[in-house]
Amino acid sequence: MKIIVTSIYVQDQEKALEFYSKTLGFVKKHDVPTGEFRWITLVSPEDQEGTELLLEPDDHPVAKEYQKKLFAEGIPVTMFGVVDVRKEYERLLKQSVKFFMEPTEMGESTLAVFDDTCGNLIQIIQQ
């Protein structure tokens, strides 16, 4: 068994697609209309056959509540691995990404947390 798709609830799929592709650098894999929403998935440019990230609309009240509470508590919804957290932090700062936690060493890892502009906190980690 392997993970093929994981979801992130987003407030606006188009805005999320722009942020995750243009700002973070993920590659769009699928963009299929599904009624009033779309099945939008992205993949890492380094592993285009790997796990897909689904930009899931937060249209359901439970999804909205889940997303709001995690954000309010400062809990990231997911974690992305990077080679160099400090370098990625500087790159994203230049693109006006708002960080909630600057690069911080925690044991053998260094991590940082930022706002994805779509209702979520995202953690990046260098292990």
Automatic annotation (TrEMBL):
InterPro entries according to UniProt: Glyas_Bleomycin-R_OHBP_Dase, Glyas_Fos-R_dOase_dom, VOC_core
Highest taxon in the source lineage: Bacteria
Cited CDD domains: VOC_like (cd07263)
VOC domain location: 1-127
Residue ranges the record marks as coiled coil: none
One Pfam family of this chain: Glyoxalase
PANTHER family given in the database record: GLYOXALASE/BLEOMYCIN RESISTANCE PROTEIN/DIOXYGENASE, GLYOXALASE_BLEOMYCIN RESISTANCE PROTEIN_DIOXYGENASE
Protein name, as recorded: Glyoxalase
Organism, as annotated: Virgibacillus profundi
